[in-house]
Amino acid sequence: MIVVGGPASRELAIKVASHLQTTYMDVEHKVFPDGESYIRYPRDIKGEDIVIVQSLYYPQDKHLVELLLMIDTAKDLGARSVIAVIPYLAYARQDKRFREGEAISVKTVLKCIESCGADAIITVDVHKRESLQVVNIPTLDVTSMKLLAEYIQRELRLRKPLVLAPDMGALWRAKLVAEVLGVDYDYIEKSRDRITGEVTAKPKSLSVQGRDVIIIDDIIATGGTIALAAREVKRQGATSVVAACAHGIFVGEAIEKMKSAGVDHIIATDTIPTPYSKVTVAPVIAEGIKEVLSKLRK
Question: 223: left (phi > 0), else alpha (psi -120 to 50), else beta?
Fold first, then answer.
């Protein structure tokens, strides 16, 4: 097995190879003056199981083309199998047609990856796991929630922690974190005043008074949802607020927005490299690769 680090995920790929105790390889890559991407494998990969690690954060279109070139080239060069590990899958939030005539973007992206020759796809905390069902190759979504919980438990001294999901759909993520910490969990219920239009947010069932609150989600992009929740739980008596996520996109003024709303700690994983990427997902990716490879070899 050879773990190949794509241009977007070299450091993470090196960690994955270390966990698997297997060979790591860089690809040669560059961008031509006209903006087109170039990819080259520097050694023979014929007959090898190739694991390509390439996250699709900004510039996501460039990173996607690089991934497709790496997959197609690996198959063309005679790789035994190609597993596409996509720590952050871009376009995953456009998983249905919200308005008539819209593209279902995640479907298109996944079909392109399959068509280029990927034998399996591994993601980390994909927005909705059911979106992976559009392809006819093995898929596996691994989660970073327990790793985030272990980091919080190890690094932060929290008082009577309460884990909150931003909505009911993410409650299962909050449950995973809460189970590691041995604490309560709940989800945030939003409401809008019919007269003033003001939006408020509060836990569905549990009180935050005198507690340290952990708000957990798969993605933090603009920080708006986290900021609203942090402001409200602080107003309701929370002692501190931790914002934790798998994928820290942090668009524009997201960090400043969350901090000004009362967020005390911001924690993300290395699916997207940022100053807040405190947790590596290499261990769960490595285990996922073992699982998928064993199925492919049967």
Answer: left
Sheet holding 277-279, edge to edge: 199-203, 184-192, 162-165, 212-220, 240-248, 265-269, 277-279
Name the token pair of 54.
Answer: 């390439």
Task: Write the pLDDT tens digit of every residue in 227-267.
Answer: 999 998 999 899 999 999 999 999 999 999 999 999 999 99
Question: DSSP characters for 242-271?
Answer: EEEEEEE---TTHHHHHHHTT--EEEEETT
Instruction: Single out the residue of 14, 12, 34, 10 nearest to residue 23, CA to CA.
Output: 14
- Identify the band that residue 196 occupies on the pLDDT scale cut at 50, 70 and 90: low
Q: Which two tokens stand for residue 138?
A: 């093995």
Bridge partners, residue 214, by sequence? 163, 242
Tens digits of per-residue pLDDT, 11-20?
999 999 999 9
Return the pLDDT at 188.
Answer: 87
Half-sphere exposure of 134 (CA within 13 A, CB side): 19
- CATH number of 2-143+281-296: 3.20.20.60, 3.40.50.2020, 3.40.50.300, 1.10.580.10? 3.40.50.2020
Domain residue extents for the chain: 2-143+281-296, 145-279
Catalytic-residue membership of 190:
yes
Q: How far apart are CA 123 and CA 83, in angstroms?
A: 11
Query: Is the pTM for the entire model greater than 0.85?
Result: yes
Out of 128, 146, 175, 190, pick the active-site residue.
190
Q: Which CATH class is domain 145-279?
A: alpha beta
Q: Are strands 184-192 and 199-203 parallel, antiparallel or unpaired?
A: antiparallel
What is the separation of C-alpha 40 from the centre of its chain, rounded to a whole number of angstroms? 27
More confident residue, 203 or 200: 203
Percent of the chain with pLDDT over 90: 83
